[in-house]
Known about the structure:
This protein has helices spanning 26-36, 45-55, 61-77, 81-101, 104-121, 125-142, 148-165, 169-183, 198-212, 222-232, 238-254, 256-269, 279-299, 309-328, 348-361, 365-371, 373-379, 397-404, 409-425, and strands spanning 10-14, 334-338, 341-345. By secondary structure, it is mainly alpha-helical. The chain has a 3-stranded mixed sheet, covered by helices on one side. A hairpin with a 2-residue loop joins strand 2 (334-338) and strand 3. The protein is globular, with a radius of gyration of 23 Å.
Amino acid sequence: MGKRNSQRKNAVVLDSDDDSSVSSSSSFLSDRVPVLGAEEVKLDNDTLLDQALDALYEKRGSTREKALAAIIEAFNGNLQHQFVEKRFATLLHQCLSSIKRGSSIEVSLASHAIGLLALTVGCGDNAREILEESVPPLTQALKTKSDSSKISSLLECLAIITFVGGNDQEETERSIQVMWQVVHSKLGSNVIAVKPSAAVITSMVSAWSFLLTTMELNSKHWQESISYLSSLLEKDDRSVRIAAGEALALIFESGILEKSIAEAKTVSAGTQERSKPHEGYTHILGLKGKVINQVKDLSAEAGGKGSAKKDLNSQRNLFRDILEFFEDGHCPQISMKIGGDSLQTSSWSQMIQLNFLKHFLGGGFVKHMQEIEFLHDVFGFTPKRRCLPDSEYRISGTEKRMFRSPNSVLNKARTQLLNKQRMLSEGKNIGHYSVNRGDEEV
């Protein structure tokens, strides 16, 4: 292929004033008045959050649901560092309680709240506590027969808390195995009994890919993973095909396929029957060829009856970029304006991270990207202006030293990520892919 896509950039502009998806929490306050027996007065944000947290102790599930929704709105609207500093443990344990006993709606809300809590606290002891305390109840909840939205929320939560709080590959692999068992019974016995829906498969593959960006792929299962993802490219649901395509691009970008081919070729050359290639070498080449042919077909799909043109175009653009990457090594590039500041990515790994976080944070994406040091470190993003007023939280001197120290977990992680990206980008031209996979242009 030529450099058709490598000459294009997709620029996305996000304004810090864009909070259309964040509604007022005043509805929760008015609903809470008869429950608490309090007078209807104007309350500051911390007081509202305190009341919402207290409401999580209520027996009525609908009251807890409204409280969780109010907490999520507050976290999306502003960074709640002061509240988290005071009530971190209480909020975490009440959300975990909701996951254990609540309705599907309550579980989904609690899962999202825990993910927001993890991003707010960033790397450190609190993030590790969230991970260790949350994995058992999340794992148990994923084994139950549930609706797709609940399972998707649980998977997203597990991905976020592992991304923030996981310190080593073993912890990430543990979460990845939990995710994979949701839809792929060959990797474990504790799985959902019913056939997973397309929405659950899409969520699992997206969450799995998100975590895979932070680790080396386990060679023990990579061929099985590629075979499964290849089978998903043949599914009727377009969102499943898109998620599988991104995951395959990430695996190819990691270099493990080429490494395995080289190793199998060496074994093949050493066999006594020189005229007959080693079985492993033939299998890997066949698997690679099959995926490339599938990608070619999807990049030129004509569409079917009732097919949404927007979704079809998203699929074509994605698989054209994947095909160009497979054939020419051109990685995707995203150029975004966030409140006037520029954020750029140049790999499948970064694109997947950005897409996942943008989807998870929704209307709170801009504020979180501008204010959370952890996300600045992940993307090498340095905003020039802040969206919080002067009266809001300021990072402490101890925290600044923690973030800036070359020996900090955060900086070590960033160094590893940057080294990996430099290796992957060496000698490659730049392609493109839109951050808004299947979404309307921002």
